[in-house]
Write a structure and sequence with these properties.
homodimer, 118 residues, alpha+beta, Ubiquitin-like (UB roll), four-stranded mixed beta sheet, two-stranded antiparallel ribbon, 2 helices, phosphoribosyl-ATP diphosphatase activity (chains A, B), phosphoribosyl-AMP cyclohydrolase activity (chains A, B)
């Protein structure tokens, strides 16, 4: 279970298959461009807050606290939709991204390509 | 570390921050449509095979074995590009998807929307 008890809709909670820390990965995709911006983690309460406030909210594994994306940077994420995958262990969050999603200042966290091929 | 020792390029291996099972999540996105298809897991050797063969290869946590996507279903993924994120703990794999990515027959695993809003 997550770090705090949650008000998440029980029907949604029943769908989730969490890891041993009570978390599921959330893939964050930009509405319109389709760019994959980042991956973060949610527990039940982070998902509840995301669904009810429309502001993307994650669980910070390093700081062990809830984290409303953009709260300090201003680089907020307005949530357009949230989907759960076929086996309930991953979320896909579609957002309108203000500014850069990445703490490095890059728009996406995935700016380093690896070499494919022999 | 991953389940087997790997021939992964040491420079790439140095970038990776693996979980306690030696794995990193791989977000799989369809080239062209931009659709996010699925999330799977890679250890160093799965990434090495993906990069060198151009065929998306994952580590199956349930079966505890390597899994060349589409090997049994025919729904193969030809890899266009692989990116690692800013802190090295997530991969983004861009693929040309043959058939459905999801074992349910859906094109994407993310076909169940949750309700956003009050």
């Amino acid at each position: 279970m997550g770090p705090v008890s949650s008000n998440l809709d029980p029907e949604v909670a029943d769908r989730l298959r969490r890891n041993e820390a009570g978390l599921v990965p959330a893939v964050v995709q930009e509405h319109g461009t389709g760019q994959v911006l980042m991956l973060a983690w949610m527990d039940d309460e982070a998902l509840h807050r995301t669904l009810t406030t429309g502001r993307a909210t994650y669980w910070s594994r390093s700081r062990q606290e809830y984290w409303v994306k953009g709260e300090t940077s201003g680089h907020v994420q307005h949530v357009r939709s949230v989907a759960v995958d076929c086996d309930g262990d991953t979320l896909l969050v579609t957002v309108e991204q203000t500014g850069a999603a990445c703490h490095t200042g890059n728009h996406t966290c995935f700016y380093t390509d690896l070499k494919v091929g022999q």
